[in-house]
């Protein structure tokens, strides 16, 4: 595989895998065993819409970003709509990274407190701020080629997390007898489960950016199936012993055991929003899993905020002049600071990610790709199978958007009150 293609593969894998691993056991506990079929449906739908985005990009050489696709399909209104959904989604995902870091660090170091003059920070709030100080410099890297090396660390971290959780269950005595593991279906929890499942496949806004960063763009259709298959199998594959010796971007079907099933069998209905928060703190495997979890968002944060920063910088490029580099650093630093503020105000990881999945990921990863594709190429050019597939995705996405957004908002409002 050429170096440029391998770098794009790493960025794509890093964009998709990792943080979602921690939430799928909780999603399974919310929806029940039958919801695993919906996970497969979501995976298939998002894989297909990713292909639709590739086709839309090939329709016009001027297309370089996801908003460009929206403009090509629906004009100025399409660009504004796609931009609003994609950038808010990426922004909240970056915020979720900080919340996740704060939760896990607080588990490792309970009671931590720092006081500077009249300002005092403790617990999760302290760690959110500290993590922001760590990730800020990574956002100053503008080259996706350089970020690929950071992404490679994130992909490796995802593998280590799953193996550590498995070790905690099989060797360190946690076991697989979590209470509530026989529940087949929970209708009331399905909206939350679906929102979190779709959140796991929220890499679409970054695909055009990855595509345009490649020197050999013809290789992108080969890279995308690798990254998507890896992500799916990271959640649902069983043959993990075969995976240790397999390359990251090949033979993804043998990659890792089912994280959703693994975490749910371990803790049942008591599984928390991040399965690492359930792990016994004294065990070495638990510490490895938690420390590796802390590494994962650090490697992804810059990749997620780069499209937002690039859009802002594009707007003010004319005014920047020779100070373009300083403006870029300032924009990216302010983005980090603003996500810190939101993370401190809404420290509800699972509910926030379910809202992102239901309201934003559904639109960006399912509804908008279908709508843009139909608009650009026209319904008459589609085969009957293609029309049925797109229609099914639109129906599924619309149902999740309405029900999932409502339930997630209600949960967040209850937490605030």
From TrEMBL:
The keyword Transmembrane applies. One of its GO terms (molecular function) is L-amino acid transmembrane transporter activity. The keyword Membrane applies. Keywords: Amino-acid transport, Membrane, Transmembrane, Transmembrane helix, Transport. It comes from the Eukaryota. The chain crosses the membrane at residues 12-28, 34-54, 80-100, 112-134, 146-167, 187-207, 329-349, 355-376, 388-409. It is a multi-pass membrane protein. Residues 6-237, 258-407 form the Amino acid transporter transmembrane domain. This is Amino acid transporter transmembrane domain-containing protein. It comes from Oryza sativa subsp. indica. The lineage of its organism: Eukaryota, Viridiplantae, Streptophyta, Embryophyta, Tracheophyta.
